[in-house]
Design goal:
By secondary structure, this protein is mainly alpha-helical. The chain has helices spanning 2-21, 37-164, 168-182. The longest helix has 128 residues, at 37-164. One of its GO terms (cellular component) is endomembrane system.
Length: 184
C-alpha cells in the first residue's frame, strides 16, 4: 500500500512538472495542493479504514458460502457413493438370486423330464401288457375256435363212420382206449 502512495506521489509530481513546463515538456510538480496528494491520501485512508471492514466482511461471507457449498458437495458425493455401493450390493444380490432361480428352474426341468419319461415308460409297459393280454385272449379264442372246429369235424367223421358201421376190432380198440383214459 505504501508503494502505491509513493507511485501516486511521483505520478502527481511528474504531472505537475509537465504542467509547469508549459508546452508539453516533462517537469515535476512539487505543489502538494496542486497535485491533490492530500485528497488522495485521505480517500485511500478512508477506504483502508472503512473498506477493510466491508471488504473483510464480504470476503468472510463469501468464504463461508464457499465452505458451505464445498461441504454440501462433499456430503452429496458421500451420499452418492453410499447410494452407489448400496445399489451395487442390491444388484449383486439380485444377480445371485436370479442365478439361484435359474438353477432351481433347471433342476425342476430335469425332475419334470424324468417324471415324464418315467410316466411314459409306465404307459408303454402297461400298453405292452394290455397288448400281450389282448394277444393271449385272441390266441385263446382262436385255439378255442380251432378246437371246436376239430371237435365238430371229428364228430362228423365219427357220425359218418358210425352210420357206415364200425368194425368189431375197431370198436374193441376204442373201448380199450376210453377205459385207459378213464384210468380204471
Amino acid at each position: 500500500m505504501v508503494s502505491f502512495l509513493l507511485l501516486m506521489a511521483q505520478a502527481s509530481a511528474v504531472g505537475g512538472e509537465l504542467a509547469e513546463a508549459g508546452e508539453g515538456g516533462i517537469g515535476l510538480n512539487t505543489n502538494i495542493y496542486d497535485t491533490n496528494l492530500i485528497n488522495l491520501a485521505i480517500i485511500i485512508s478512508v477506504l483502508l479504514i472503512f473498506g477493510r471492514k466491508v471488504l473483510g466482511t464480504t470476503l468472510k461471507e463469501r468464504r463461508l458460502k464457499i465452505e458451505t457449498a464445498i461441504k454440501g458437495a462433499e456430503q452429496r458425493a458421500k451420499d452418492a457413493a453410499a447410494s452407489l455401493a448400496a445399489g451395487q450390493q442390491k444388484l449383486a444380490q439380485a444377480q445371485a438370486e436370479a442365478e439361484n432361480i435359474k438353477k432351481v428352474a433347471e433342476q425342476n426341468a430335469v425332475k419334470a423330464t424324468e417324471a415324464i419319461l418315467a410316466a411314459a415308460a409306465v404307459d408303454v409297459q402297461r400298453m405292452k401288457e394290455t397288448a400281450a393280454a389282448d394277444l393271449n385272449s385272441e390266441r385263446d379264442k382262436a385255439i378255442a375256435q380251432l378246437r371246436s372246429s376239430v371237435v365238430a369235424m371229428a364228430l362228423k367223421k365219427v357220425e359218418s363212420e358210425l352210420q357206415t358201421g364200425v368194425a368189431d376190432d375197431a370198436q374193441q380198440t376204442l373201448i380199450d382206449r376210453s377205459i385207459a383214459l378213464l384210468g380204471v
